[in-house]
Write a structure and sequence with these properties.
Number of strands: 11
Shape: elongated
Number of domains: 3
Bound molecules: adenosine-5'-triphosphate, magnesium ion
Structural class: alpha/beta
Distance between the termini: 45 Å
CATH superfamily of the largest domain: P-loop containing nucleotide triphosphate hydrolases
Oligomer: single chain
Number of helices: 15
Length: 323
């Protein structure tokens, strides 16, 4: 059995946080099997990168890696695209055409954005997953294909099942090994590691000297919520490499959306009522709420309040707040 340290994704997929390493470990174990794998995670968390890493670590590494973007499959063409067709099967079918699934024979089929798959095609895909056979349009008999399936989605796929947009049986057939990639904002120390390593990598690619980040710039990067996850971070690093080669980046040099404090907590959003407030009481109340919401986790509570943990502890002492 392969171990985590042998997993080549360790080189390409950066990250050392326990949340991320747990996913890599599970991926390394499943890579050596033929088990169907479902990768879930927000946009830009590395689902495609992980799917490729699984393929490269599998016994199918020398075989093809075929991606089907399910979001881009027009419903009327999907069947022929996936399963192929025989000459004369429909108007315009001028010759035999193998499908994408057959193209993945001996390798891995990556069903990207699988949550977007039209319902009609879901049933046909299920039949393939259960029997390992595909039936090209216009061909009387099905044929066997040897394919390992890895699927990915940024939707909550079980939520799609509950909403009636995704077949429950197909969900369970895909979800044999579930891998959940954490959002960047929940990967703690990985942020700084990714900033440094991606910046170094990108500087090399552009043949430029890598810039450094001031403490203030790094703090701003850590405060930001990264809705586009690693993809967004990579783009920011690339921009910094190009604009500030060999220099030290200050917080003010960062893109506006990162420089600004978290818009959810923008002070400007709070409107002082005409009757005024009791600022100290309000502060105590907000501290209590933050601690309650984070179940007493002081680091997380401090982040919610835009404070450092030290400042939060100081104010908790000042107001004799215990969590
Ligand atoms: N752990 C990581 N280490 C280094 N680079 C990463 C990591 N995760 C993602 N990336 C990079 O971030 C970008 C986005 O990754 P990827 O395309 O795999 O995300 P995704 O989850 O498939 O996104 P989407 O849901 O939008 O399709 C790529 O450039 C990829 O190389
Ligand atoms: Mg993707």
């Amino acid at each position: 059995m392969s171990t985590f340290t042998e997993f080549p994704a360790h080189d390409t997929m950066l990250g050392e946080s326990p949340e991320f390493q747990a996913v890599l470990r599970a991926a390394a174990i499943t890579a050596v099997t033929d088990a169907t794998t479902l990768i879930q995670g927000e946009s830009g968390t590395g689902k495609e990168l992980l799917a490729r890493a699984i393929h490269e670590q599998s016994r199918r590494a020398e075989g093809p890696f075929v991606t089907i973007n399910c979001a881009a499959l027009p419903e009327n063409l999907a069947e022929s695209e996936l399963f192929g067709h025989r000459k004369g099967a429909f108007t315009g079918a001028t010759g035999d055409q193998p499908g994408r699934i057959q193209a993945a024979h001996g390798g891995t089929l990556f069903l990207d954005e699988v949550g977007e798959l039209p319902l009609g095609i879901q049933a046909k895909l299920l039949r393939f997953l259960e029997g390992g056979e595909v039936q090209p349009v216009g061909q009387p008999r099905p044929e066997r294909v040897d394919v390992r399936v890895v699927a990915a989605t940024n939707r909550d796929l079980f939520g799609e099942v509950r909403a009636g947009r995704f077949r429950e049986d197909l969900f369970y057939r895909l979800n044999v090994v579930p891998l959940q990639l954490p959002p960047l904002r929940e990967r703690g120390p990985d942020l700084e590691l990714l900033v440094t390593r991606l910046t170094a990598r990108l500087a090399m690619e552009h043949r430029l000297d890598a810039p450094r980040y001031s403490v203030g710039a790094m703090e701003a990067l850590q405060r930001y919520r990264w809705p586009g996850n690693v993809r967004e971070l990579r783009n920011v690093c690339e921009r910094m490499v190009i604009l500030f080669p060999g220099q030290t980046i200050q917080a003010g040099n960062l893109p506006a959306e990162i420089r600004q404090r978290d818009p959810d907590h923008e002070a400007g959003e709070f409107v002082l009522p005409d009757t005024g407030v009791h600022l100290e009481a309000l502060e105590q109340d907000l501290i209590r709420q933050a601690l309650q919401r984070t179940r007493g986790n002081q680091s997380k509570a401090a982040r919610l309040l835009g404070l450092t943990r030290g400042t939060l502890i100081y104010r908790m002492k000042k107001y004799a707040i215990t969590d």
